[in-house]
C-alpha cells in the first residue's frame, strides 16, 4: 500500500519540470490550503498523501505514499504530507474577457515566480477576475509561483499570452483602459479620476520594469513621498489594484 | 595594500552576528546603493572595496581588499565589491516623536528580516518619518533587513522598542491614533474617515498576526474582494500606509 516509485509517483515527480508540465497539462499543488482550493476548483486528478496527512484529512481520498516518496514529490521542506496533481486551468484571453472582468492584472516578463505568484494573490484579493501571464513571465504552474499565490491560482481566470502588445490591443478593444505601473510614469496614481472604469494594470519585473514600447493608455507612478527610490513589486501592485478596487466600489 | 585578514576586516566580519552589532553599535551595508545612502546619512565609519569597485567610485575613499576578503565581508553572492561599516542610527522614541511625525509604521514581532525591511521601505515611500521595530521584531541592522529596506534604513528615524504596549501608549499620548492592520479587524480600511489624522500603523508577522491584547484604537482590515484569504505583509502594509498618505495629502 505504501509506495515509493510507482509509475504514478515517478510521473508526478516529473511535473517539477516545466517541459513535463507543458506536455501533460498538469502541475503540482502542495500543502493543505492549496490542495483544498484545488479540490474546490475541481482540478485535482490525483492526491498523494502520507499516512499521517491522510488521517488528518479523511475528506479526501488519497494515494498513500511513504516519507521518501513525499519528499521526492514535494518542492518544499515542509509539504505537510500532501501533494496533488492538478489539471492546468488557464483559458484563452477571449474566454476570460467574455466574462467581462472589470479589473485585470497583467504580469509582463516577470521572471521571479515568487513575485508573479504574489501579484496573482494580490489581484485576487483586490477583486480582479483575470490575471494574465504575458511575454516572458514565469510559468504560473511553477511550484514557487503556485505557493506564493496562496490558493489564488485557483480563484481567478488565468491567461497565458506570449505576445504582450497583442494582449494590450485585445484588452483595449474589449473596453478596458490599460494602465502601466511605472516608477517613472508621468501620471500620479492619486491624480487619476478614471479609476472606476474597467481597467487592466500592467506590472513588470522589479529589476527591469516594463518594456518602453508598449501602447498603453497611461503610465502611472505610485507617488514616493519619502526618500525611497522605488517600491517593491508586491507593494506597488497592491496600491494600484486597491486604488482601482476602491474607486470601482465608490461609484456602485 | 590588499588585505585579507587585517584586524579591521576581521572586526568588520563579526558584524554579521547580532551580538557583535549590539556590542559595537555598528553594522554592515553592502552594494553601491546602500553605501551611497549611508554616506548621505553620515554614518559610514569605514568603507571596504575591491580595486574594481573603488575605481568605479572614486568619490569614496576606501580600504582596498581582495576578492577573498570581500567575500568574507559580504552577506550576498554579488556584493558588487563594496561593504561599509556604519554607525547604528536608531533614536529613542521620544526623540523621534519630538519631530512630530504624522505617519509612523510599527513592526510588531516580525521575525522575518526581509519582511521587516520591506515594511520599512514601504513606510518611507509613503512618507512615514518614523519606523519602530517593536517587541521581538528582527534587528533592523540584520543584513537581509538592511538589503530589503533598499536604503530606507538611512532615510527615516529608526526606533527600537522592546515593550510594544508601552510604545502604543506613548504614541497615543503624543496624539497619534494607533491602527492595527489585522486581517480579522472589525473596521474596513475603506470605511475610515479619520485617516488624515496623525497615525501609527501596527503590522504583525504574516504567520501569527498581531498579539490580541494590544490596546490599539482600531483593528483595521484591508477588504478582500475576491477569493484570497489574506494579503501578504508587504501588500497589506502598502495599502494601509498609502491610504493614510493619500488622506493626509487630500486635506492639506
Automatic annotation (TrEMBL), chains A, B:
<dbReference type="GO" id="GO:0003723">
    <property type="term" value="F:RNA binding"/>
</dbReference>
<dbReference type="Pfam" id="PF22435">
    <property type="entry name" value="MRM3-like_sub_bind"/>
</dbReference>
<dbReference type="Pfam" id="PF00588">
    <property type="entry name" value="SpoU_methylase"/>
</dbReference>
<dbReference type="InterPro" id="IPR013123">
    <property type="entry name" value="SpoU_subst-bd"/>
</dbReference>
<dbReference type="InterPro" id="IPR053888">
    <property type="entry name" value="MRM3-like_sub_bind"/>
</dbReference>
<dbReference type="GO" id="GO:0005737">
    <property type="term" value="C:cytoplasm"/>
</dbReference>
<dbReference type="InterPro" id="IPR001537">
    <property type="entry name" value="SpoU_MeTrfase"/>
</dbReference>
<keyword id="KW-0489">Methyltransferase</keyword>
<dbReference type="InterPro" id="IPR029064">
    <property type="entry name" value="Ribosomal_eL30-like_sf"/>
</dbReference>
<comment type="similarity">
    <text>Belongs to the class IV-like SAM-binding methyltransferase superfamily. RNA methyltransferase TrmH family.</text>
</comment>
<dbReference type="InterPro" id="IPR029026">
    <property type="entry name" value="tRNA_m1G_MTases_N"/>
</dbReference>
<feature type="domain" description="RNA 2-O ribose methyltransferase substrate binding">
    <location>
        <begin position="28"/>
        <end position="92"/>
    </location>
</feature>
<keyword id="KW-0808">Transferase</keyword>
<dbReference type="GO" id="GO:0032259">
    <property type="term" value="P:methylation"/>
</dbReference>
<dbReference type="GO" id="GO:0008173">
    <property type="term" value="F:RNA methyltransferase activity"/>
</dbReference>
<dbReference type="GO" id="GO:0006396">
    <property type="term" value="P:RNA processing"/>
</dbReference>
<dbReference type="InterPro" id="IPR051259">
    <property type="entry name" value="rRNA_Methyltransferase"/>
</dbReference>
<protein>
    <submittedName>
        <fullName>RNA methyltransferase</fullName>
    </submittedName>
</protein>
<dbReference type="InterPro" id="IPR029028">
    <property type="entry name" value="Alpha/beta_knot_MTases"/>
</dbReference>
